[in-house]
Amino acid sequence: MQDTKHYNIAVIFPNWYPYLKDVMEGILAIHSIRSHCRFLNFVTSDFSQPIELPQGYKPDGILVSYDDDKFDATWLDDLDVPVINIFSSLRKRHPSVGSNFRSMVTTAVEHFTQLNFEKIGVLGTSGSAFNQRMYEIFEEECSKRNLPFWSIDLPDGIQPGEWSHLEKNAPELKEKLLNPGGRTGIYTSHDVRGRLLIDYCADLGVNIPKEIGVLGRFDTINARLSTPELSSILMPTLQIGSQAMQLLINLIEGNKVETKHIELEIKEIRVRASTVAKADTDMVVLQARSIIRENACSGLTVDELVQSLPLARSTFEKRYRAMTGTSPALHIREVRLEKARQLLLTTKRTVDEIAYNIGFTDARPFVVFFKRETGETPGEFRKKFAK
Fold first, then answer.
1. By the number of CB atoms within 10 A of the CB, which of 84, 94, 222, 263 ranks highest?
2. What is the reported pLDDT for 279?
3. Is the pTM above the cut of 0.90?
């Protein structure tokens, strides 16, 4: 964007739960974004009704998060400005940026099966069209692996500490927990629900993770407050925010875009004791993950990583993939790539400086790496916001 251009961006969210805050962090981390965009925040839980805009205010673009399978927000179209939705739904009335949920399901299923869980269950949200599609994908992935699968709908809005509501709203769940018919891994659609399930298992005397494994999503504070701590799928929130803003600015400026519906892969799980016991030898993987996060941008290689671990490389890589859904080599690349993106968007450092900061000795191999991973050079990536 040129320095002379300024855009009014309306942000319309149903509330400010952690996922949406993290998405906005991804937007605000973009270098000079506050010099070019003025944000005005609105909160509404009913997108079927238009919000009241200040007199004389017309946004240049709108960022929303709403279920357009549920709400028919035609009033957004009447404003005649670009709209980007960051809510994952099936209808996709507006251009969108979100997560690829098949990759999330595959990551969850692989996590459970490679840790020797024999059945998989899902606690989803009732009344959601997307929820039904998620069940279908889970069933497909479980069928490929000859795994029994079940799903149970729960109403949304159950709060931490209200585990007794699980028994009230899903009476069939108790039988599945007390008589699982094999070690069962249960995916819950968010961390609050995962924490409630763990509390319910404790009340029933069900051992976690020996009998039941629990996996949440979003890696919020509720995952850490759970006892035992909850394993949780990490969402690419910062990337969603930055890409949503890139897409919105391109649409505002009338630029050609390759796709109006961007889906980012979900590949990483923050592994904790709800799926892997602390005494389990696979806890060495957690040590390896910490080493990667701390040292990937110093040029760390898998060979160097393995030297610090009490496992042969082949055994380590198998266990690492089982727990995280990805390989250690890929995780190293992802950490370096994300750091490079952050530096390109939030600083004025040269390509040579950024290459050095993420473990390359000069710019040439860094440019090759970045283009291979993203399909564009570091300069092209940066120019999206600094023409």
1. 84
2. 61
3. no
